[in-house]
Amino acid sequence: xxxxxxxxxxCANCKTTLKLIEETAQALGMQIKLEKVEDMAAIVGYGxxxxxxxxxxxxxxxxxxxxxxxxxxxxxxxxxxxxxCCGKD
Length: 89
What we know:
Blueprint: E1 2-7, H1 12-28, E2 32-37, H2 40-45, E3 53-56, E4 59-63, H3 69-77
Helix pairs in contact: 1-3
């Protein structure tokens, strides 16, 4: 089970990111531990200056914007999405 933290003070992008991760995990049938971290000292402790920040299993993987659904799927499954450059899906 992945331990995921969304770092942010409660802005719309932070809420959107939290919901996106939750919905993507449900769609994939994955159980995750999802936590919202709003404490600024904790956020800065991760080295995140621009929110939302995303921490998976103790490692910051994203900061500063809402990630794409494909990117969230990559984090959850460990499989890189196909970019389509080779003509394969």
